[in-house]
Structures are given as C-alpha cells and as structure tokens.
Amino acid sequence: MVAKEIIIRNEQGFHVRPAQLFVDKANEFRSDLKVRSESGEEADGKSMLDLMTLGLEQGARIVLEASGEDEQECLQALAELIESKFGES
C-alpha cells in the first residue's frame, strides 16, 4: 500500500466534473483506491457516489491510498490530475 496527502486546489472543489475525471482515471488501474478526508471519512476512489459524499471543497486535504499491483502508477496519475486542478483554470 502507498499513500499520499494532497490538497484540492481547483476553485469549485470536487464537484461532478472533477469527480468523474477522477473516477475515470482511477478505473484505468487494477489497484484498490481509497480517499480519506481530514475528518476521517473514507470513500472508494472508484465510486463517484462515494466521492461526492465527502463534500470536498477547495483547500481540503485528502489522503489517497492505493494498494495493488500498479499502486504507484495509480497514485501518481491521480495526484497529477488533482494538482492540475482537473484542467480548470
């Protein structure tokens, strides 16, 4: 298992479009993925519904945890997506 803390930086937070991009990218990998909020709530990183229930806004700190055969690649790709602000300006 590998983990990385990251901050949601896009202006609108984890709304529908970023959540869909995240889930689409996460599902490209075989590894299991969990997303944990600062409050300790945990969501399946491959489930849009689970992610939306976290209510992540701009500035939220989250921890991504990947476990499986491609865990490093999974974590790297998702961290890059978040750091790019999901392509938003």
From TrEMBL:
It is found in: Cytoplasm. InterPro entries: HPr, HPr-like, HPr-like_sf, PTS_HPr_Ser_P_site. This is HPr family phosphocarrier protein. It holds the Pfam family PTS-HPr. Its main location: cytoplasm. Keywords: Cytoplasm, Phosphotransferase system. PROSITE patterns: PTS_HPR_DOM (PS51350), PTS_HPR_SER (PS00589). Residues 1-89 form the HPr domain. It comes from Paenibacillus ehimensis.
